[in-house]
Specification:
alpha+beta; 5-stranded mixed beta sheet; about 25% helix; 4-stranded antiparallel beta sheet; 6 helices; elongated; about 30% strand
Length: about 375
């Protein structure tokens, strides 16, 4: 007798109910990741990660007008400088550095927390002919810049200088700092030197009026870069001696590092030990000694004037005459006394003569008058 297969028994299934503790813990662990993903995909975060952008309210305006410059994608709370520059383009940047810009009429602006800004900029003619741009760059911190095409109506226009992409400068000799400190530097004046180096053009195109950047760093701080343009042309395969001024801030002292950069390449670095301005220290030491002494003298004089005095003190403080004056006075007094005595004697004699008129000078008795001698008297 064969056994007929019967219907299969149903498989046991898990009861459906509230989620278990493991599922809740997994959801809580994924929640921070979901929040971070939402923040990264927000529009503001994407703008902050993108390149800095600049937009203008007008693409063309004449001298004396005004435009509004707006930006986004910059670093939050960053200080920016807005300039109208000639001989420039967004592709090649500002040719000639800030010497091609209207620096006197530039504006500064600080970005908000989202890295955006809006600032009005007066329209002025740059020192170089157009094509022109509105140049926006950071002043401090990490370097960032952006350019927007702009046309100054009525300003001359000229073609951009030929781009010498094959012109390459290299340092051929050791750099050095020339110059000495003056007496004013000992009292805190800004130390100044000349950075001297010899460069050569290793490319096939000449390099005309190259713009270098000189950076000075102190300690662990990053160098502060300043543009220095050298006037001249370095022919292909040629070399040139370049001197660039270097100046520190007033009162600077310690170990500094001077760097020279051309484009994105640092050509040379030179250490510079600056002595301490001891004249300033001497000045403060003398000031700390002289001022208290003067205050003490003034205070003692005031105390001497306002303090109460005992009775009769003014007699003792009467100024006495000098010795020569006293002697002269005594001499005059004595002479006057003698004159008075002689006058009194003459007066008495005259009075006697008047009272006794029968006496004459020759007949008046006198003990000192010599007696006449007679013959026979001893």
């Amino acid at each position: 007798m064969t056994r007929q297969p019967g219907p299969e028994a149903p498989h046991p299934t898990r009861p459906t109910g509230p989620p278990s503790l493991t599922s809740l813990l997994t959801l809580l662990a994924l929640l921070p990741a979901l929040c971070a993903l939402f923040v990264l995909t927000a529009p503001g975060a994407r703008a902050a990660e993108g390149d800095p952008a600049v937009s203008l309210s007008k693409k063309e305006a004449g001298k004396g007008g005004e435009i509004t410059v707006r930006g986004s994608g910059w670093r939050p709370d960053a200080l920016l400088m807005l300039l109208i520059c000639g001989q420039s383009s967004p592709e090649r940047g500002v040719i000639g550095g800030t010497n091609s810009c209207a620096n006197a009429d530039g504006r500064a602006v600080t970005t908000d927390r989202k890295g955006a800004f809006s600032k009005k900029l007066p329209v002025t003619e740059p020192p170089k002919p157009c094509p022109c741009v509105v140049h926006v760059a950071t002043v401090t911190g990490e370097e960032a810049l952006a350019d927007a095409v702009f046309t100054v109506a009525g300003h001359p226009t000229a073609e951009l200088p030929r781009q010498g992409g094959d012109g390459k400068l290299a340092v051929l000799a050791t750099t050095r700092l020339e110059g000495d400190s003056s007496l004013l530097t000992w009292f805190g004046a800004p130390p100044a030197r000349r950075l001297v180096l010899t460069v050569g053009n290793l490319g096939s195109d000449p390099v005309e009026d190259p713009v270098f950047e000189i950076g000075t760093a102190h300690g662990v701080y990053a160098p502060q870069w300043e543009e220095r343009q050298w006037r001249g042309t370095v022919a292909p395969g040629g070399k040139a001696r370049i001197e660039l001024p270097v100046e520190l801030s007033a009162g600077a002292h310690g170990d500094y590092q001077v760097s020279l950069r051309y484009g994105d390449k640092v050509l040379a670095e030179q250490p510079w030990g600056v002595g301490r301005p001891w004249g300033v220290t001497l000045f403060w030491v003398l000031l700390c000694l002289v001022v208290p002494a003067a205050v003490f003298r003034i205070g003692m004089a005031v105390v001497d004037k306002v303090r109460p005095r005992p009775a009769g003190a003014h007699r003792l403080r009467r100024r006495t005459a000098p010795t020569a004056v006293i002697a002269k006075t005594k001499t005059k007094t004595k002479a006057n006394a003698n004159a008075n005595t002689a006058t009194a004697t003459d007066t008495a004699t005259n009075a006697t003569t008047a009272v006794l008129p029968w006496f004459t000078p020759d007949s008046a008795p006198s003990e000192n008058r010599p007696r006449p001698t007679t013959k026979g008297q001893a």
